[in-house]
Every structure is written in C-alpha cells, then in structure tokens.
Amino acid sequence: MIQSGFVKLPEMAVPPEDDGPVAELVPAPAAAPSPIRAFLHQRSAGRWADGAFGGLMLVCALSIFAIVLLIVFVLVKNSQLSIHAFGWKFFTGSSWDPVSGDFGALPFIYGTVLSSVLAVAMAVPLSLCVAIFLLEICPRPLRTPIAFLTELLAAIPSVVYGLWAVFVLVPLMRDQVGPVLEKWLGWTGLFAEPNFGVGMLTASVILAIMIFPVISSISRDVMKAVPIHQREAALALGATRWEMLRMSVLRNSRLGIVGAVILGLGRALGETMAVTMVIGNHPEISKNLFAPGYTLASVIANEFSEATGDLYLSALIEIGLALFLVTIVVNAIARLLVWAVTRGESVRAV
Amino acid sequence: MTGTRSARSAGMHRLHQLWRSGMNHFVTVLAVVSTVLVLVPLVAILGYLIYKGASSLNLAFFTHVPAPVGEAGGGMANAIVGSGVILGLASLIGVPVGIAAGVYLAEYGHGTHLGNLVRFTADVLNGVPAIVMGISVYALIVAMQHHFSGFAGGVALAIMMVPTITRTTEEMLATVPHAIREAALGLGIPKWRTVMSISLRTASPGIITGCMLAFARVAGETAPLLFTAFGNQFWSFNLNEPIAALPLQIYVYAVSPYDEWHRLAWAGALVLIVMIMTAVTLVRIFANRGALKGGH
After folding, report:
1. A284 Cβ contact partners less than 8 Å away, ≥ 6 residues apart
2. pTM, 2 dp
3. Contact between A327 and B129 using a beta-carbon 8 Å cutoff
4. Of the partner residues B38, B130, B219, the one whose CB lies closest to the CB of residue A212
5. Domain limits for position A220
6. In this predicted model, what pLDDT tens digit does every residue of B142-159 receive, in sequence order?
C-alpha cells in the first residue's frame, strides 16, 4: 500500500538537476518508463518472491494456531476413555486406585488449589512490598542490582529449586520452622505432627519463592504506568509517601496488580518439578499442612511413564486436559487485567 | 480535618499527624524488610548451589558418562551433550518459526482479525504448563513412533520457545520507525527485502534478546522431557533414540537415595545455572544497548 504511493514519484523518472524547490508528491498518471525502473524491476526478481515470503510468514503464524488446536485435539482424543468411564464424577471422586481401575481427581485438585493459593498468599505481600521499595524508596544506585537479582530468581530452573528444596528447605521446615508453628498454631489443627518436612507447606513455600519474581516485576510495571502527575497531585496536597502510594499509585493500578497476582497463580497451578520433589506425592485430602499431598501436575510427572493400561493413561491425560483448560482461563483473565492497566504498553515477557 | 479550631481538636490533629508519619515510616520499614527477606532465599539458593556444586565439580563430570550405582566417580558428559543436541534442535525449529510468526504479526497481520487471533493463541501457548506440553508431544510423536526420542524432546522445547520469540519479535519490529521502511520501499526494493534487510536488521538486538530469553527458559525445563527425550545413561547422539538431558539427569539424581548421585546433581545444577545465567546476562547487555543502536 505504501509502496504504490511512492514508486510513482515523478522525480524517480526525471531526477531534478538544479537545487530548486523539492517536487511535491504528486502521483504520476502512469509509471514513466525509465532505465532505472527497468533495472529495479529486474532486480526485484518478480512479484512471486514477495508473495512467497508473505505466504511463508503467514504459514509460520498459522502454525502457532495449529499447534494449540493440535494440543487440545490430542488431549481430548486421548482422554475419551476416561471421560466416558467417569464423566463428571472424575472431578468429585477422591479415590485413585490404578489396580482396581477407579480414578477420581479430587485429591489432586485439592492439592493443586491449596498449594497455589497458599503460595500466592505468601508471595503477594512480599512482592508488592518489593515492588514499592524498588519503585519509590530504593536509592538509585541500588535499584538496578536489586531488580536484576530478583529477576535472576525467575531464571533459575524449576528442577534446581526442587534440588535446593529437597536438601535445604525440607530439613529447615522439619527441624526449625515446623516445631515453632506446631507450638504456637498447633491448636488450629493446620499444623499437626507427624512432620517429615515434605508436604503441602514446604511445597507452598517453594512455590511462593518461584512465583515471587512474576508478581513483583509485573506489578512494578503496572505501578510505573501510573502517570507521574497523579503522584505529584497527591504530594502537592501534602500527602506522605505512603498516602501518595495508596491514593494514587495502588488505587490506579489495582486492576493490573490483581492481574499480576492471577498470572502468578497460573504459574503456580502448572508448576511441576519443584512441587513433585517436595510435596510428598500421596493422594489424600487433609487440612494438616504438614501432611503430604499431590497435585495435578505432579501426578502426571510421577505416574505417566509407569501407567499401565489404557484407562490409567487416559485418566492421567484427562488430568492434563483439566490443567490445560484451567491455566488458559486463569492466564486469559490475568492478561486482560494487565492489559487494561498498561493499555498495550509492553510488559516484560514472563 | 475540616476547619477544627478548638484546643482539643488541635490535639487530635497532632495525633493524626503523628499517625500519618508513623504509618509512612512503618510502610517504608516494611518494604525494606520484605526486600531483604526476599533476597535471603535468592542468596541462599545461589550460595548453596555454588558451594555444593563447586565442591563436587571435577574434570570427570565433563568427560565421563554416569557410573553404575554404588561406583564412585562418573560424570554427566552425555547429559551435557544431550542437552546441547536437544536445545540445538529446539532452536533450529523454534527460532525461525517464532521470528517468522512475529514478522507476520508486525508487518503483515497488524490490526487484522487473523493477526489478533494468532497473537492470542501465542499467549495461550505461553501459558500452557510444561508438563501438559510433555504429554501432548508424547501423544503426538512418541505414541506414534512407539518409542521415546530426542527428536520428540526437541520438538516439545521448540514449541515452548515459539511464543516468547514471536511476541518479542513483534514488539521489537513495532519500534522500527516507519520512515526507514518507506525509504526502502520508495527505492523500489521489494517488501521481502525490506523486511529482511531493513526491519529485521534494525530490530535485531531486541530479537536476539528474545531468542536468548526463550533459550534460557527452555534450557532448564525438565517436565516436557520426562516422557519425550526420557534420558539414558550412555553416549547417544541419535535423535531417534532416548537421549540424556542435564535437567532430567539432575531430577533423577536428586530424588535418588545415593549420596554420590546427590553430589553429581549439585554439580549438574551449577553447570546448568551458569549456562542460563550467561544467557540472561548477555540478554541484559543486548537489552541495554537498545533496539536501534546495534545491528549495523
């Protein structure tokens, strides 16, 4: 489109020799034949190259669409057996017995939701405080190194978090943190012996550490998107820094912060390796946070390669399908909220 | 606050001011304490990793294949090479497709329904949990071939790389001024040449950053490889067979009951982290150069 407006410039055919006024952009009635044009036309190797290139780009773009469709298709197709055998009862049944072929996903759903919600509850206050610190309080020379350090947390692979959790966090939770929690909060029934270190609480702690950088960096971006005169207005009215933050920054970016939190939640729901290594992998529904649990992702990781029988495999794939759908919905809501605040300004890729 | 003049409300006013400044200081202290609290696990993880990893690293780690259970020594040479092979394959598929899709979004499909649809699906793909990607590729490739293969692992990682690269490419191409494109088109250069030599070249530092980020992200992925590349204990370069990968090996060794294997897991984690950190640091350097300064 742009092209056609420019190739018809009259001075292309007859370049002005003098330093007179620049010729105006008047489209010529027809392309004047000239040696330059003939040469360029020859060099452009014909129209087909443009068409082929555009087509290639289109095919690659469509392949993304195709991949997502293909994933949905194979998940649905391969879980048919289990969907037909159990129907909706699959999500309400709490027995998981591969030997007798009875599969219910409730313990895994419970484990996934509880560990993710606990992780978010732990990570959100810390993330927001760090975001505020980096944005408003931190001395300028410290800002970049600390931001870099927190972003390094995001680059550490899940399996390394798991390794660290197995050898450092688990003994810590068992010997130091566990007894204290039990002594002071044991009456709630949430922290009851026996505490082996592996269990719901440890999994939530490692998840909290893992989702912290996501929540922190995105909420920092949405806070940064609040116009500077909002802050200045609050300060000019005599607000303290906290009041300014509360009235202009947090209030204006609350949707985006909720989006960041939900994005963190989405990350926690699908997290596999670190959780599998410390949650204890036992399908039970218990309100005791020291007790072992199981999540949707970790049951797939643990049992998929040794699943015998088509129904068992199909049940595991249905769990994968459920996880896929839940994370898509959660991520879509989160992105919409973040977008609503930043209005399409680029948010750091996470 | 509203026009109070009596002595009593003056006292209240002072109390209120005290509350306000107290709250302000409280939040400041809270923010500082939280930041310190967050930096503690980070430093703990990195410190412990370096301490444990460095004390377990030796030359054999890089030159030997895993020793049988109970035997001392052994290394992860096959896993390092295997990771390289899988990541190479993933980049070979993922980078061109990702960049091409990004080019389509920025240069051809901008503002069209199809463009928006592709952008949305790229975001969806970005949110797919790694383990779900693992079982999908298992069902697509491994179940068809009837055996695990390094090829399936590479495809799984490639799919995970694509959305990141696509979105970064699109964003970086959007920062290229229209004037340069128009200048090229005005000279009669065909559109495909303009995209290749003008748009992509100008945006190349940013696009390289995106590719490195995507690479760093999938380099540590374990879950998609569990049922695709599967891992093994021997030298293997054959993409049609199970192939070892560093993250897989770390996982297997970490959950094993043997001290010698734990030692190797720490060493492997250090090597993996150094690899990823190098990539991330390079990204910072590229990113700081800005989108338009390099590439000439």
Report:
1. A107, A291, A292, A293, A294
2. 0.83
3. yes
4. B38
5. 83-342
6. 888 888 888 999 999 999
